[in-house]
Amino acid sequence: MEDFLKSLPQLAAQKKKENQAYFKKLKKKAPKNLDNRMQELHDETFEEVDCLSCANCCKTTGPLFTHKDIDRIAKHFRMKPSDFIDQFLRIDEDKDYVLQQVPCHFLGADNYCSIYDVRPKACREYPHTDRRKIYQIGNLTVKNTAICPATYKIVEKMKASISMN
After folding, report:
1. Are 143 and 130 in contact (CB under 8 A)?
2. Does the global pTM surpass 0.85?
3. Which one of 24, 90, 109, 111 counts the least CB within 10 Å of its CB?
4. Rounded to an integer, what distance in angstroms lies between the CA atom of residue 38 and that of residue 129?
5. Are 48 and 37 members of one domain?
């Protein structure tokens, strides 16, 4: 996994234009069974990829925190939401709450999340490859191929098994 992870940004960069073109076609005319097929590819790939041996998403990017996320996590720590924000978050250029720094403060050396049960919605849903109508998030999916080995593999499997000619 370590070697694949090191080469992932370069592999993703090499496939970027191809992947963008694929998702553009997918957006124009998605196959009827796309959601079901994506769920199969997602499940199949996550049988092969162990997030705990990677955690690259937590090491290199940070999630957006919704107000619900902030309230839930602050409650978990028995903190005021404003104190949680002051201690861990900042507002980015899009006016969203994000982590002050990466790697994520809540990621342990063992790649376990110390707030897993109350983690942000964005973390729960990452890498979004089992989302319905994935063609609507093509740009995000292509971006995630450089971060998440599973996403890279899923997109490669998509292109091999879901023809867009």
Report:
1. no
2. yes
3. 109
4. 7
5. yes
What is the domain extent for residue 21? 1-6+13-56+127-161
In tens, the pLDDT along 109-133 reads 999 999 999 999 999 999 999 999 9
Residue 75 tokens read as 């409650």
Same domain? For 132 and 121 the reply is no
Q: Which residues, given as ranges, of the chain have pLDDT below 70?
A: none
Listed in sequence order, the residues at least 6 apart from 129 whose beta carbon sits closer than 8 Å to its beta carbon are: 38, 41, 42, 45, 141, 150, 151, 154
Distance (Å, whole) CA 131 – CA 143: 16
Q: What is the largest CA-CA distance in the chain?
A: 54
Beta-bridged to residue 90, according to DSSP, are: 98
**CA atoms lying within 13 Å on the CB side of residue 98:** 14
99 phi and psi, to 5 degrees?
Answer: -65, 145
**How many domains does one find in the chain?**
2
